[in-house]
């Protein structure tokens, strides 16, 4: 098999070899449309950067680290698995490798940062599941360790670059879809107050609905969702429920079936389970989010990041199926 080179990639993408080199090393100087064309050529041809030569030239390990989340109920835990898949793809195209680690809680994760930085020549971290009072970002920043986050710094000063999904826009679109279908009493089933993501999803429902509707709260899970939904469906029940996750939506469907209630249900995250059972759900552009995280990280590592943090907010989309 003929060796794939930068010249081969350039020919396939219809660009110069310098442009291919720029996409690999300094992507911010190349137009987005051209970057995508070159990346598609790199992927199609299976081109891989010579890591040993690059490390000698740049002094970098080309290694980034990210935490892998626990499985939880096996439904919504798969969401970050898809993000990790996208991040690994984007990192590979950029000539980086991804190291995965586990940690139970913020303190354990910070301790893991210390261990990893002492044991490996890491270039940077990608943080996920950001939340109010998150101590991880300040720990890394205080030590000048490069990082970006998938998730905004809820309530904290925006001192680092991040990529996030517009959660409020997602539930607003779900609620507007139900209003257009003729529903007037639309409930919301979400997580207890205080979760940045959960609060944003509730805010989108309220913004679209106007007057408050019935609200149920539950920890994320099918059974806890079913318990909360049964209470909502007892007296003066809603004809539709927007849920903060697919797990809660499955619980709501279970409760409606047990009580013999007709109730439209919309979930959030468009998991494989949602697709399998025909659950209408809000889909997150996880592959795009991962790619944008990698772009921001490369700008940071290459010294081309702007003087102020870059924030990227991506719109989700509603996938309509049988349940609403």
UniProtKB/TrEMBL annotation:
Keyword Transcription regulation applies: yes
Question: Which SUPFAM superfamilies does this chain map to?
Answer: lambda repressor-like DNA-binding domains, Periplasmic binding protein-like I
Q: Sorted alphabetically, which Gene3D superfamilies does this protein's record hold?
A: 3.40.50.2300, lambda repressor-like DNA-binding domains
Q: Which Pfam families match?
A: LacI, Peripla_BP_3
**Residues in domain HTH lacI-type?**
4-58
The record's keywords, sorted A to Z, are: DNA-binding, Transcription, Transcription regulation
* UniProt-listed InterPro entries: HTH_LacI (IPR000843), LacI/GalR-like_sensor (IPR046335), Lambda_DNA-bd_dom_sf (IPR010982), Peripla_BP_I (IPR028082)
Give the protein's recorded name.
Answer: Substrate-binding domain-containing protein
Q: Which organism is it from?
A: Paractinoplanes bogorensis
The organism's taxonomy opens as:
Bacteria, Bacillati, Actinomycetota, Actinomycetes, Micromonosporales
């Amino acid at each position: 098999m003929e060796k794939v080179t930068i010249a081969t990639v350039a020919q396939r993408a219809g660009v110069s070899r310098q442009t291919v080199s720029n996409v690999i090393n300094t992507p911010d100087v190349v137009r987005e449309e051209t970057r995508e064309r070159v990346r598609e050529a790199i992927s199609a041809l299976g081109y891989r950067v010579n890591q040993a030569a690059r490390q000698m030239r740049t002094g970098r390990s080309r290694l980034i680290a990210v935490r892998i989340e626990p499985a939880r109920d096996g439904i919504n835990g798969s969401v970050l698995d898809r993000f990790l898949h996208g991040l690994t793809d984007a990192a590979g195209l950029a000539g980086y490798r991804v190291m995965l680690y586990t940690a139970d809680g913020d303190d354990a994760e910070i301790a893991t940062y210390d261990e990893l930085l002492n044991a490996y020549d890491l270039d940077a971290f990608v943080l996920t599941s950001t939340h109010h009072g998150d101590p991880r970002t300040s720990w890394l920043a205080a030590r000048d360790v490069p990082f970006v986050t998938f998730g905004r710094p809820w309530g904290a000063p925006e001192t680092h670059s991040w990529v996030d999904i517009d959660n409020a826009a997602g539930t607003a679109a779900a609620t507007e879809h139900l209003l257009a279908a003729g529903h007037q009493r639309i409930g919301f089933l979400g997580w207890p107050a205080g979760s940045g993501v959960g609060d944003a999803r509730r805010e989108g429902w309220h913004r679209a609905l106007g007057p408050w509707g019935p609200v149920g709260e539950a920890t994320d899970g099918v059974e806890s969702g079913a318990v909360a939904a049964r209470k909502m469906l007892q007296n003066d029940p809603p004809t539709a429920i927007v849920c903060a996750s697919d797990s809660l939506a499955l619980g709501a469907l279970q409760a409606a079936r047990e009580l013999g209630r007709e109730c439209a249900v919309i979930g959030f995250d468009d998991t494989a389970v949602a697709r399998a059972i025909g659950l209408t759900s809000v889909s997150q552009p996880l592959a795009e989010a991962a790619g944008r995280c990698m772009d921001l990280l490369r700008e940071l590592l290459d010294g081309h990041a702007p003087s102020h943090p870059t924030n990227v907010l991506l719109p989700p989309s509603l996938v309509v199926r049988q349940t609403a």
